[in-house]
Amino acid sequence: MSGSWVLAKTVSSEQEIKRSRFICTLWPIQSLAEGQQIIRQQKQQHPQAAHVCSAMLLPAGPTGQPQAFSDDGEPSGTAGKPMLAVLQGSGMVGLCAAVVRYYGGIQLGTGGLVRAYSDAVRQTLTLAQREFIPVRHQASLLMPYAVFEAMQRLWQNRWLIDQQEFGQQVHLTVRIAQSDQQEFEQQFMQTIVRLKEPQATLVWHQPPEQDT
User: Domain 135-204, what fold?
Assistant: First the structure.
């Protein structure tokens, strides 16, 4: 089944390295703007922190995979980029990581910083709950009430309804898991034939993608 693994809910962990506190939190996000807002809030919540370093990773799109990272004053390449590398190896997308550092007075050196920030994210990922989100495609259906009632019985726990209008006929906009598209089409056609309602229509908003 095509889809993505995502973070089910926010999770945090803390560790101390040479008297510096590293507090890592992971959030599920749907855009870089959402992640940037989270980082701003973290800085407001931790005004005494020396650094609030971050990394974000979104699902791949037509122009690549959106991502961002920040060292927030740490030496270049010692925080945000190593954090992003850990996210990229997690198998998940759509997540934001922030590591708040309270400086303990002992310098860690370049290698020590890379390990500290990487380990902070890695440790938090071990506590994370994952959720699989299947690829879904949107479709519009225009159908008599009898067809709607029959399809509702079959698909009420499997389709996601984006819009619904009830007039002389029922107009639905739904999202169907990519792996269920063929079954959905077959059951829709079988239903309109069985109920003798040939005027019912089903239109996909985008063509199915091929599994890889």
Answer: Alpha-Beta Plaits (3.30.70)
